[in-house]
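Re: weekly structure request thread

Next one in the queue (393 aa):
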Amino acid sequence: MRTPLVSIVIPVYNGSNYLREAIDSALAQDYDNCEVIVVNDGSTDDTEQICLSYGNCIRYFRKENGGVATALNLGITKMRGEYFSWLSHDDIYYPEKISTQIDSLKKLGFTRTVAFSNYNVLNMDNGITVGVSFEKNYAQSKLQSGVFPVLFGIATGCALLIHKSNFERVESFNEALKTAQDVDMWFRIFRGQETVFNTERLILIRQHQAQGTKTIKTYGDEQNKISIQHFDAVTGEEVIQLFGDKSCYCYMMIKFFFENQIMGAFEHAMDVLNTSEISEGFNRKLLEMREHISYHLNSEVHRICIFGAGINGRRLLLDLVLCKIEISSFSDNDPKKWGTLIHGVPCISPKEIDFENTLIVVAIQENKAVLKQLEEANAAHVITSDKLSLMSF
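Done, posted below.
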């Protein structure tokens, strides 16, 4: 049975703190036909000594500092393999990463299909590891549909396995980009390309304060610029295929930009939604949500408070804003949130709620304790948010 050579490319700049673990994980793959290429992007620490200590076990290249895109492009030109697999110097492959993805491609007959997978995330500040399972939030058909995984940040670079011909098709990483070169590349590769999604978690991604996303000043501007470019680049045909209609597309992207604080792209998508013709189905959802809220309001109960100032509360705020429903306040049991503004809405303590004139919408999923708390406080106007979401995939 054919076992194509896979080139694992590790770009690194001053990464001596984690580099050895990354290289070791690449060399420890249970797939026996891999080459490991390390590209030193002008490091000034002990990176070179670490790489040289591996001798012929890896292929090592050093270049002047130019950014991740330049290091990846050099690695691609040097690779001998049929498939490309990117490993960041601060991440780790599990032993079955390559073999699992090769097996999934074998079932498809070794096409140019792009393979990608779930992964684990290790927060270096608190030592907590969290696993992602995208199939719980998105249908498999969506996960394997064109640019959908790229638009929603699902296609993470180190979780991919890419046939080399794809780089010939879409050309090199954009070296003018310092932090968004990966998203830019995946959008070009995934567009019109077959993909296969592996539910296994095949890599460990570290989150730490020294990452480029936290230290490179252009990160925010690049993310907004690329996000807007991609949002506008999706064609009408792709919108129908992936989202059903333009209103739904705008809403889903607005929601994603909002939750990930890509505010320039968020405002752009809001403008497009507000200046476009609203589809019948989406408008019906808006009306249903307005009617559900309005049913609980009257001349005395005229304020709305979202109880729960976390991610679910912020999601609910967005939906209500899109329905043109005004929110008076947030409330939360966490004293650290009291007195703060959440997207311009003040957060108050539960004791400050005017229970007599306020409709409280509980936006906490595990809400039994909160509902009991509100009952004991004689809150007469309480509903839960479980039936208020506009739509989701």
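The mean pLDDT is 93. The chain has 16 helices and 15 strands.
Next request, please.
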